[in-house]
């Protein structure tokens, strides 16, 4: 198993960047579809938010979220990180909005692996935080 935190630390040591500030992430899962037309809805994958409620990470996959799909490795999970650095200036907010989603190039097979990769990236790159 790859230690994603160590991998990103190594990459950042080479670049001369030292992760100083880390914000805790709170993961939430989309609610289960209920009601009359629930068969037409697809349950979304978990998202992570910073302690102040701002978006940090969102996960997308080729399948609807379910416990079995998140554990057996049958889904290809895409990880997107909120880049808040684009909207730190008023000019940047006008052009880009408050933040921009950045996709990690590597994909995960399980939910556990996706969370580890996302948390390692957010820890290693505090410049993406608001």
Any overview of this molecule?
The protein is an alpha+beta fold and 130 residues long. It has one domain. The protein contains four helices and five strands, in the order H-E-E-E-H-E-H-E-H. A five-stranded antiparallel sheet has the order 1-2-3-4-5, covered by helices on one side. Strand 2 and strand 3 form a beta hairpin. Helix 1 packs parallel to helix 4. The longest helix has 14 residues. The radius of gyration is 16 Å and the shape is globular.
SSE arrangement:
Layout: H1 4-15, E1 25-28, E2 47-50, E3 55-61, H2 67-71, E4 77-83, H3 90-96, E5 100-103, H4 111-124
Antiparallel strand pairs: 1-2, 2-3, 3-4, 4-5
Low-confidence stretches: 12-21
Spatial order of the strands in the main sheet?
Answer: 1-2-3-4-5
Secondary structure: number of strands: 5
Number of domains: 1
Please summarize the sheet with the most strands. Answer: 5 strands, antiparallel
Number of helices: 4
Which radius of gyration do the C-alpha atoms yield?
A: 16 Å
Overall structural class, as computed from helix and strand content, comes to alpha+beta
């Amino acid at each position: 198993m790859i230690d994603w935190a160590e991998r990103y630390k190594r990459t950042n040591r080479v670049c001369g960047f030292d992760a100083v500030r880390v914000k805790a992430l709170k993961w939430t899962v989309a609610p289960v579809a209920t009601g009359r037309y629930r068969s037409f809805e697809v349950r979304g994958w978990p998202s992570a938010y910073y302690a102040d409620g701002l978006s940090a990470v969102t996960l997308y996959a080729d399948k609807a979220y379910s416990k079995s799909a998140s554990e057996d490795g049958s889904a290809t999970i895409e990880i997107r990180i909120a880049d808040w650095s684009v909207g730190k200036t008023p000019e940047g907010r006008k052009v880009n909005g408050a933040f921009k989603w950045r996709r990690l190039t590597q994909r995960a097979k399980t939910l556990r692996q996706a969370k580890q990769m996302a948390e390692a990236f957010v820890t290693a790159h505090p410049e993406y935080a608001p």
